[in-house]
Amino acid sequence: MKKxxxxxxxILTLVLGFTSCEENENFEQCPxxxxxxxxxxxxxxxxxxxQLDEVKDLRFTWSVDGxxxxxGNLNDLAGQILDYRFEAGKHTICVKVASEDCPIQVCTDIExxxxxxxxxxxxxxxxxxxxxxxxxxxxxxxRGVNEINYGWFINDEFVEDSSPNEDNYLIWDFKEPGxxxxxxxxETPDCANGTSYCKVIEVAEVNQACPEVSFSKxxxxxxxxxxxxxxNVEGVDExxxxxxxxxxxxxxxxxxxxxxxxxxxxxxxxxxxxxxxKVTTPDCEEGVTxxxxxxxxxxxxxxxxxxxxxxxxxxxxxxxxxxxxxxxQVIDDQEVILDNGREFSLRNLQAGTYKICLGIETPECPxxxxxxxEIVIEENDTTKCPELLxxxxxxxMVADFDSVKDVEVYEWLINDEVVETxxxxxxxxxxxxxxxxxxxxxxxVVCMIxETPDCPNGVKYCKEIIIE
Length: 468
Prior knowledge:
Layout: H1 2-28, E1 34-38, E2 45-51, E3 59-64, E4 67-68, E5 81-85, E6 89-98, E7 104-112, E8 125-129, E9 135-140, E10 150-154, E11 157-162, E12 169-173, E13 178-188, E14 191-203, E15 212-219, E16 226-234, E17 238-246, E18 249-257, E19 263-267, E20 271-281, E21 284-296, E22 305-308, E23 311-314, E24 323-326, E25 329-331, E26 337-338, E27 343-345, E28 352-362, E29 365-377, E30 390-393, E31 396-399, E32 409-414, E33 417-423, E34 433-435, E35 442-452, E36 455-467
Antiparallel strand pairs: 1-2, 2-5, 3-4, 3-6, 6-7, 8-9, 9-12, 10-11, 10-13, 13-14, 15-16, 16-19, 17-18, 17-20, 20-21, 22-23, 23-27, 24-25, 24-28, 26-27, 28-29, 30-31, 31-34, 32-33, 32-35, 35-36
């Protein structure tokens, strides 16, 4: 019995060993992948290309800082190139290459530094298939997009211009298959020689055996935000499969005959959605896709903020559970977020450009709503900032700096809370003093803060005051 057991263990070991070797051998046959990075110095726009010898039957998925990137094209199984506009800082870019035998992921790290001295706009646009494989939507996305004039060009031919506050996109139907260079170009008073950003679009030839595909939509009677989508498939007698996607997520697929069920019933929350229908047939195995973008309005509050000096203020005046983000990171520091979430202090930010957003979710607005602005913090010319100073006289702090009469407004703070504002505007008389009479014994941090037109970021002077 013992010998039989030993023989069984030996045979099992050999079988597992052969299996393991076979799996390793298959893995070793996977292609070697490299990521090539292209970037013009000082630009926040990057291009990444996955380099490998064989791309047949491989699927590429790109991610930035752990988040998958939507390429906007359900038919794109190659997707070797990723164009992306970054915020300043360090980022990790990965590409997953998947086939039945070769699951591989390769990553690279970059540090993005935007040249703030470059007067030309850092142009960029996203591209995605629109309703049909030959139709594309190009969406301009760069700092100042609503402030300058720019033009769209295809193969060096001007096709459309865009002015401030107009739609920042171009929808174009390519009549013939082939390679097209799509560019966005702009000139500004500070960038007289102009600048441009281009992409090459490969429009594939459509299989003539593929059907004409579209769909209609209507709201279901008596429902709230529930829609019925009905597929229209023309030119074929047999359909192999229908696949419905909502924001690139497969919702439903089914084998279908000409008279089968071709509808999708879907309830939406308020927000923007891309609905796609992909149809395959025996003669069109690669399938054909038709998409529409829809917006579902809900009872979302209107939120907005404005800048006043070194703070941003929510403008409605209503107390809500607001969320502030700085370059995509949630900020909940009580020294930055003031007035129960309605104020965002800019005082501690270094010079630079920041994307700051105010957001909120409510039961009536479950997907939330967001308002964003790019906020520029200028570099202080410290030679033009007042040299603040105060002296102590008993429990009274006395402003004692040379330009005190020239500074129209300044503030006194105790432990980072504003306790008094000194102003000589509109003929106001001020005593330039702060009294700590009545404060309990202890140690307090007393500060003065002032802003002037020549010192827009403000200047601060502090002392620790001990009251016995």
